[in-house]
Amino acid sequence: RGLLSGKVAVVTGAASGIGAAVVERFLREGARVIAVDLTDQSPGRPDLLVIKGDVADAETWRRIADTARAEFGRLDVLHSNASMVVRTPAHELLEADWDRQLSVNLKATYLAVNACVGLLREDRGAIVLSSSVHALVGVPGHPAYAAAKGGLVSLGRQLAVEYGPEVRVNTVLPGPILTPAWDGIGEEDRLRSVAATAAARFGRPDEVAAAVTFLSCAESSYITGASLVVDGGWTAV
Ligand code: NAD
């Protein structure tokens, strides 16, 4: 029996990087998964339903909640992971790009909870939010991303208290994890990020998936409102 045997989980940003690794690990742990992404994903299977949609759109979340209810009759885990970034200093950032980053990276979690917390409460579920070390340390060129990721840490704590005995809510803060999000980022920036970690290397998506799995399953039953850095020691250096 896996750590998530019998559980139903929603994972957003499931087509790439950390989200894809979480889907793979959740399936291995016995969960049935609803995998959500803006981009196309490989077709589902009996324990994997695929939904194409924008997490910043309330209609996507209605479809996700309806699917969980209709296909599985329950929802135990919500991993809000989808994200995007426009790398530009604040004085050059277009207002539309600020709004989009706040919507995808922060508002989407409010929409998720709004649509899904009823189901999660029924099943004493767990929510895991995906923040970033950018919530804790300044990195040039990420004003809206950092604001949204910082907001998620506060939102996670607030939701943990709000839904207290029924739903646990925790937040992971990854450091530099080698995923397609790093495509197009130059060697100098990569080396600087790796040098900022005590581990002196990039993290792997499966190393974040392990933390997300821990916070999603009964192994973390007394942990809620917590922030877990998965950053190779970036914030310890
Ligand atoms: P990624 O770019 O590899 O994957 C993100 C996925 O989200 C993509 O498949 C994309 O299509 C999807 N997505 C983007 N906008 C969406 C939307 N509006 N609706 C639905 N899907 C959408 O990213 P990743 O590196 O795997 O990052 C996953 C999470 O980890 C993100 O929340 C990211 O901020 C966080 N994180 C990553 C790193 C890192 O170094 N990779 C560091 C800190 C935090």
UniProtKB/TrEMBL annotation:
One of its GO terms (molecular function) is oxidoreductase activity. Its EC number is 1.1.1.-. Pfam families: adh_short_C2. Keywords: Oxidoreductase. InterPro entries: NAD(P)-bd_dom_sf (IPR036291), Sc_DH/Rdtase_CS (IPR020904), SDR_fam (IPR002347). Belongs to the short-chain dehydrogenases/reductases (SDR) family. This is SDR family NAD(P)-dependent oxidoreductase. It comes from Nonomuraea marmarensis. The lineage of its organism: Bacteria, Bacillati, Actinomycetota, Actinomycetes, Streptosporangiales.
